[in-house]
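Incident log entry.

Two folding requests arrived from the same account within the same minute. Monitoring flagged them as a possible duplicate submission, but the sequences differ. Recording both here for audit purposes.

Request one:
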Amino acid sequence: MTVILILLLIFIAWLAIDFFFGRLKHLNSVSKRNYPLRHAHWQLFTDGQELYNHLFEDISNAKHHVHILFYIVKNDLISNDFLNLLKKKAEEGVKVRLLLDRVGSYRISRKEVRQLRESGVHFSFSNKPRFPFIFYTLNYRNHRKITVIDGNIGYFGGFNIGKEYLGHDPYLGYWQDFHLKIHGDGVQDLQSEFMSDWGKATNEHLHGESVYFPKLEQGPLPLRFLPTDGAFIKDLLIDLIKNSKSEILIGTPYFIPGYEMLQVILAARKRGVNVKILVPYKADHPFVKEAAFPYFKVMLKAGCQIYRYTNGFYHGKIILIDNELCDFGTANFDKRSFFINDELNCFIRDPAFIEKIRSEFLIDVFHRSEKLTTKKYEKRPFLQRGKEFFSSLISDLL
């Protein structure tokens, strides 16, 4: 028994050392990337079927190239339809590049990869676990979702490819999320981000090829992209919350903000800022739901309003500040997005867009959610409280 305990302690120490030095090496290799303000034409999607209909149609109409990055592509009927469409376009002579996160898309088989390449699809996995920091790189995921078609059409947001995003998972039910299609100005930044990740994965560097960067017309939506590589986003969000005056609305599937971010939210509430948090009632991963509850305790006491989505599964990632600024993209409001993952968000200051997002948010809050009260919080079952304690120990990795 003593030997087992010693071995366990050695293993835990190795994990901690691996993660610490792996992250240190990673932070020394990344730098902040600043994109200029763009003005795009836009279309918002909150329903997976509608998104897939438009995405598949735009891919079908591609003439020159299709560049796609997803965190997750599953092994199911809709995923097979998606991959078969990419094979078809490659066989037609369209340049197709597909980049998938190595862990998120673990269901993609070697046979499928071989068939993609035989069809002419240029394929690679992103963020492969590697030595010497195997534990850190296993956790360091590429969570971005980017599609660029002919350099003029772009998609990004929270949806991946799989049946649950169509609401076909019997446990999760309807999938509520946000994805944005843009065309014209702004697509060049999505292209650059894809090329950056593609270059890291394959050593094929495409930035200098002008054929991928056509002249683009401007649209009405002002937006500025913010890519983050396990750094930078937390400090920026802290500044936004510190400067809030009247309202903070946060929609996220995973609420694990950490101590510093929590204190900033509580300080805003103390100033009289109205704070509403929207999270799922159900969980799609172990312990992420329970990890939020220690934060909920102090937030409820401070007068924050917390709602749990009951109409299926909530996967949206939005922050609205004072009805003036919307943070939209792939980053969750958790430590993993703040400190580990590659993410892509954008900041939008546009009354029409913000009103659309705010309207969707409030409909979800008041018509599709259950308000968490102090009374309900205190009635949590003993088993959940035990899970909360355990989840707090591993919350950095959830």
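Request two (distinct sequence, not a duplicate):
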Amino acid sequence: MEPTYRAGERIGAERIDGSEARPGDVVLFQDLAWRPDGSLVMGRVVATGGDRVTCCEGNRISVDGRPLDEPYVRGGDPVGVPGLEFDVRVPDGQLFLAGDDRADSFDSRLRATGDRPGTVPATAVRGRALESPAVPLLLLSGVLGGGVLTVTGLALGTAALIVRRRAQDPPAAPYGHLPVAV
């Protein structure tokens, strides 16, 4: 998935159902046809069920006749393989996926052969990569900040109740003898 994600880089991901995946999302999926060892694979959603994906008029991939704008593709080459051509109708409940380094990615483009669309079942999706590695840190800092504010609010609220109660108590009588008028 270079250049978007580098090999060995830690990424944040959120659990999603495959039906929530949208074109442009980077998803993590598990499909034994793609990785027999069962490890997670990362790919960018190009199209979803019902879409028609074609290649390569003008050296670009098109979905439903509209050429894709893919600024994230390594080297600016959205095809990556000279002479590659395909015309695939993505079956319902399936996703057409591609890597961002198209010259070095064995994805739906290369798996689409004959009557096999090269797609991945949406049920194989395990999560969606967060757009920025800073997102999990921001979420964590928000949770911690919220916890600190809650504890501070409770402490200040308790202090205010104590001060208010003391202000309502009647003053104590002075010590010693009180002068008595006769």
